[in-house]
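Ion-transporting ATPase, Thermobifida fusca TM51. Tokens?
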Amino acid sequence: MNPTPPRTLDVDDLLDNPGTRIVVCCGSGGVGKTTTAAALALRAAERGRHTVVITVDPARRLAQSLGLTELDNTPRPVPGVADSNGGSLHAMMLDMKRTFDETVEAHADPQRAEQILNNPFYQSLSSSFAGTQEYMAMEKLGQLRRSEEWDLIVVDTPPSRSALDFLDAPKRLGRFLDGRLVRFLGTPARGGAFRLLGAGFGLVTGVITKILGTQLLKDVQSFIGAFDAVFGGFQERAEQTYRILQTEGTAFLVVAAPELDALREASYFVARLSAEQMPLAGLVLNRVQQVHADLSAEQGSAAAELLEATGEHPLAAAALRLHAGRVRQRNREQRLRNRFAADHPDVAIAEVPAYPEDVHDLDALRAIGRALAGVSTVP
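Tokens:
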């Protein structure tokens, strides 16, 4: 009994729908999320949407694929995009520290903002603390959505194994900044609090001071005192953005390669998005092997053996061997895809073929976009 074919994802319907305001590409690292995000954004723009694509990928692959030398924390217009349908395309790469600095500057008075920005503990937190990148991705996404400058935002999520970390980051960073240890460290060692807590407090802070050093403890205390006034706004905006991600105007696309580990990760993402009540549009299966001849792997191998036995036409024999290998690979990929589809029958799938060269310009991105939409699947 042949397996039921998976549902086909209608990418153009998704992109053309004015109700779609945010498309989030998520998946494990190395499966083509950045290229997928860029191709979707370009296709949407050339079909008439005013689109911005944001990446948090430090490898700068998005800039390269868009034919740009660099991207920064401000959306920049992408040259060469066809605008005959009235659309436009901007692109940006998240600078988490710059975003953090801009947010502090926007939501604190100048004196308090300067105090926070110059604080050594803040400088370390804003550039290297685990979860800051994902938190700032949420902050920037919220800023772009509130600006109403674009009618479609395409997000390329962080290249980490758990690419849904950006859903947890606001809560995690909030728990850290509002946690007992940070609050304890932020309590002044002298004054009313010290008298109320008594000598026990002094003993504990003495131990912590030996571990952290007097200056770091002072930096933490100074940071907490200055940051208190703006922290509530950070959390509120992150929660607002989280709620936006749960609305029908958002569409999550899980991106995977036709490999066992990648599709296992994809299954995890599908389950997690369902648990978080995030709207899943479908699965993008990248780098799918294409075979353009009606010749089975067995037939190809047998024909290659005959040629090799005669010693004639070695190039033809090698081509037949290569074809047989590709057919076997395609068959493995189809089995994995069908297994995923059987486990997740409600998840629509779009397939993108494996291309012989890396994507590095708009024409290549257009080809990826056509493949996503099912218009062309020939590399």
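The two ends are 31 Å apart (CA to CA).
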